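--- STAGE predict ---
source: upstream dedup step, 1 unique chain passed
mode: sequence only
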Amino acid sequence: MRKSFASPPTRPVTIYNTHQGQLSSLMATKLAAPKRARSTMLTGEIHKPWLEKKDPLSRIAYLLTYAVALIGIGASVVRVWFAAKSVNMLTGNLCLILDDDFNGDSLNTDIWDYEVTMGGFGNDEFEMTTDSSNNTFLRDGYLYILPTLTSDVIGRDAIMNGYTYNITGCTTATYNDTSSCGAVSNITAAAVINPVMSARINTKKSRSIRYGRVEIRAKNPIGDWLWPALWMLPVNDTYGPWPLSGEIDIMESRGNGLSYAEQGSNYVRGSLNWGPLTWINEVWRTTGWWTERRSSFADDFHTYAVEWDDKFIRAYVDTRLHAMLEVNFNVPFFERGDFPPVVTNGSEQIVLENPWVYGSKSAPFDMPFYLIMDVAVGGTNGWFADNVGDKPWINGATNAMQQFAEAQDKWAATWPEDDFSRALVVDYVKMWQQC
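--- STAGE serialize ---
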């Protein structure tokens, strides 16, 4: 009887009963968990480990994380608000004075004038500009400014030697510069006929603005050493010859491909040219650009605009967020240039005077400017830097155009055969005057 109520003898430890004990313990844990969850749900309590007294650092870390995030969001909102408030905007009324969509049969010569010359426009450019329908024409509602090869007209040999070419309708003669109306090729003298024909048109006689807005929708050309530009010059040289009276570059670019090391066709630039003497240009102080990293501005149309009044000037592409240039006229340009009192030109010492002393803070950009559109080719002014890319001429060489002409087979091979790809194609031009 005593044995019937006694505890059973202890079993020896085996693999089976050890595993069974662990399994029983695990089942007990799992069965206990739902009861605690159900209890929490019934009482409406939420488990908050960061509030447990046993770990106060977790609670502090949690609160600090959210506090820093909220401070960052608040600071961003404040910064955006102040940035938006500081954006310069034109004030007053704008009166539309030019709206040309090029839907006619030919260029409207009541608005546009051709500049016909072989002179290179001070940059020693390699093209001649013509009024020929080969270089400027309307097609399907677009204006084409198309560079072509002079050799297609007079032959390659004539360009290089023994030929006299006089350009038809030369406009440079108006300024008593008849030397830019013709050329004689002579291989001994390293003189060649301009190897490219292109075009340059302007609104000098018809439309100009002193403060306002210009908008141009255009597609750039592709091809080595092409130089498309949409820009403005003063109607009168009130403060003196270039660059004393200023120049506004709304857009200029290079036709070289995306791999070109000095900003190819995937870059567009906006600039102000100005300076107190003809050989001092402070454009480097007032220039900028926008870029498309994986595409070219020759791939599609873009809208280029300039907004300008007595307080600021801005040039941008497609949207104000893509500003190439923005300059506030809060400092007079002579002060902005930080010029020395005396400058040296060779052996000559020149006392530097302020050419804009009687102008406003925006001088020389406080006078009427007119619009120019063109496609230049090459040149020696430095727009195409030496030793960059496969450049076939040296800017300082006296026979730079001859070097360029001799390499025609190479650079002409990069020019597309179809007009649409090789031309500056303009969809429309609009101009508003502040009124």
